[in-house]
Amino acid sequence: LDRRGRHRVYGIVKLVDKNLDELAGELVKEEKNQNKTKDINMTLTSVASYNNDLTVTVHIKNMGTQSVKIGADAKLYRWNEEKSEYYEMNNDQIVPAIVYMIEKNQEQDVQFRYSSSMIQTGHYRICVEWSGNETEEQQSENIGFDKTVILEFDV
Fold first, then answer.
1. Which of 29, 33, 127, 131 is the most buried (most CB within 10 A)?
2. What is the pTM of this model?
3. In Å, what is the CA distance from 145 to each residue of 19, 69, 128, 135?
4. What are the pLDDT tens digits along the chain (155 aa)?
């Protein structure tokens, strides 16, 4: 070190520069993960209600670089005016343990069916769970879903 401590300042600047590079790398990684979400487009295409049954059709377009899986058991919520909140609807219909696989650059319609005496005119929200698959080993039905798309509609 010289009398002004120049070497010490250089070392501190180098350490700050290294930490800044690490933070920038984490930010870029997080940005890439968020862009994967943007590669999935879900659009509500139709809602059909008859007696106590409700069928919601969602068009799913996978513009990403990997396959995605969609859960067949999307949660349905109904808006409660009195409490100003959504509450989950119980589905009386048995939902098969289906996982829809949508390959990269593919699209398809997926139907979600509900049966409940509580289905009536009102505002609803459906929460569709999905996740991307990095490898073929992860394409099992036992892997959990890590993302949710919320679509709202009126009946």
1. 131
2. 0.65
3. 33, 8, 10, 15
4. 666 666 666 666 777 778 888 888 888 776 665 555 557 889 999 999 888 889 999 999 988 778 888 887 788 899 988 888 998 888 777 766 667 888 888 999 988 888 888 888 889 999 888 887 544 444 444 456 678 888 999 98
